[in-house]
Structure formats: C-alpha cells, structure tokens
Fold this sequence. Notes:
The protein is an alpha/beta fold. The chain has one domain (about 5-145, about 205-250): UDP-N-acetylmuramoyl-L-alanine:D-glutamate ligase (3-Layer(aba) Sandwich), CATH 3.40.1190.20. Helices cover about 40% and strands about 20% of the residues. The chain has helices at about 20-30, 55-70, 85-95, 120-130, 140-145, 155-165, 210-225, 230-245; strands at about 5-10, 30-45, 45-55, 75, 100-105, 135, 170-175, 185-190, 195-200. It has a 9-stranded mixed sheet, sandwiched between helices. The protein is globular and about 45 Å long. The model has no long low-confidence stretch (mean pLDDT about 90).
Amino acid sequence: MTPVALTIAGSDSSGGAGIQADLKTFAALGVYGASVITALTAQNTTGVTGIHQVPAPFVTAQIDAVFADLAIGAVKIGMVADLAVIDAIAAGLDRWSPRHVVLDPVMVATSGDRLLAAEAVDALRTKLIPRATLITPNLPEAAALLDEQIVASESGIAAQGKRLLALGCRAVLVKGGHGQGPESTDYFVTSAGSIALPAPRINTKNTHGTGCSLSSAIAAGLAKGDDLETGVRNAKAWISAAIAAADRFAVGHGHGPVHHFHKFY
C-alpha cells in the first residue's frame, strides 16, 4: 500500500511554505501527498500582501472528497485563519477519524506577517489541539497559546510543553529555532516526560517554510508507519539537512526556501 499523507493548509504563491512546502516534503520522503486548501495567500520571500479565505463549505467538500477515496495515513494541519474553517476541519476529523493528526499552529509567517486572527486562537486551542496527535509550536506560538511570556530556559520550555499537553493533544514538539546560542534545541514532550533534541544552529536567512516542512515530515513518517518519537527524530534530522542546504538556492530577495530535495540535487 502506498503511504498517503494529507495536508490541510494555506497556499503560498512563492512556493516556499504552506501547501507547496508540504507536498514537496511528502514527495522528498517517499509519501504520496494530497491537499485541502484553506486559504490563498499572495506572498513571496519578503512578506504577505494578501490572504483570501476559502469558504468553509468548500473546505468540507475537499476533506470529504479526499477521505472518501484515499487511504490517508496521517494528516498535517497548517494555516487555518478562519473560525468557520476551524469548525469545518474539526467536524471532518470527527467524521473520518484519521489515525494521526499533526497540528502546526501557524500564527505568524517567517517574514513577521500575522496569519491567524486573534479570535481564532481560542478555537485552535479548544477545537483542534484536543484532536491532535502532536502539535508543533515554536517558542512564540507556545507562549501565545498559553497566554504567557516567551521562555528561553530548558525548564521553562518543558513546563510550557506540559501545559500545552494539558490542552488535550497526545504530544507536543516545542521548536527552538527562535532561541539563541550555537544549538537549536526542540523539546518533545509527552506524558512520560521531555526529550531534548539539539541540532547545530545554521547561519542562513533561507528559512522560509521550515515549520511547515518539519510538521509535514513528521506526518510523512507517521504515514509510513513510524512511531511518534521516531517520526519526530527523523523529521528533525531531515529539516536540519534541508536548512543546511538552503544556501544552494538563490530564490527571492528575503527569506528564501529550504532545500526540500537536498538528497537528490
């Protein structure tokens, strides 16, 4: 059986993040990718200039069309900026009961542009996080979801991870890319405890789509049958290599994309 993963997210017209990054990630990792588009963005490597929401009933239609035909092994959820769309996704997850759901709580683009309306944050907390196998917030997103200050210490990050776990998901990966120091350390938090996952911090401005791609890489691993910790570890190693190879590209004038196909060219 061909492993299949589904991304439910927004489209990035410049191809570096969102649906486009997710499908590239699935392909690079040997998984067939399907998509449900929640929003269209007009954006490039320097910023977002427009967002067009897809109506919730059409999001529902996409979800039902895909699940009715394809054997979805894992779902990745990215940009969901509209309350009605969040409701549609939650209802779709309940209707089709996918085994694995990886939720990347996308709130702000790499460029700094806000992608999630403030009123949608509570819906994310109460309607999607409890349905997730894993959530993958970065440090600012973890703090925003908890209405707390951004923390930097290992103990503080682990504690926030535990509080996020209490929102109802099975596991949390708090990403340390916004931290400081020679290593970028992510923290994988479950009911059993916290595991630090360090990697060398790479000096590049080409980081557009890293969060999208990491969460998609985890979903790809789960679709292929990895257990959750193995999927997280493999995805972390893959995205680190994709960032390290990003400067092979000369794309755009701002934050360029990572190199999804670094293993191939």
